[in-house]
Amino acid sequence: MTREEKSQVIEALTTKLTDGKVIYFADISGLNALQTSNLRRACFKANIKLAVVKNTLLNKAMDKSDKDFGDLPSVLKGNTSLMISESSNAPAKLIKDFRKKSLIPLLKGAYVEEAIYIGDNQLESLVNIKSKEQVIGDIITLLQSPAKNVISALQSGGNKLSGILTTLSEK
Prior knowledge:
alpha+beta; five-stranded antiparallel beta sheet; 7 helices; 16% strand
């Protein structure tokens, strides 16, 4: 690979790292051709971009990126694959499901919306992370609950003033 080709790869990786909010670092070495193909298909279906990268080029791209990756460069040893997604827990769920048949892929680390996770032992916590949309939905549900109670209380007492006062005094 020429120096110019390396710089182009570094620029492309830097763009991916800068644009991505959810980036997983995994080791998929040890998968045979069929398993690798199945993993790529599963990533495609889950809207996850999977790319095998060279550690030295990825390290340089991480340095050029405006993000703080903390200790993640320390996991760049051996085979490294990037899994880039819009959903914070989709790659973790995919890895967990894929492991039902095999011990691979191994999670090296993850960068999830400015939070750093290092090590395969973090997989379960990453699976349980709620997406931004799920958190917003939970907040809206909590905010709507008191209003629904007041409306149902008013409706249960009918339109009579005494029924309304009685219902409100009980609440």
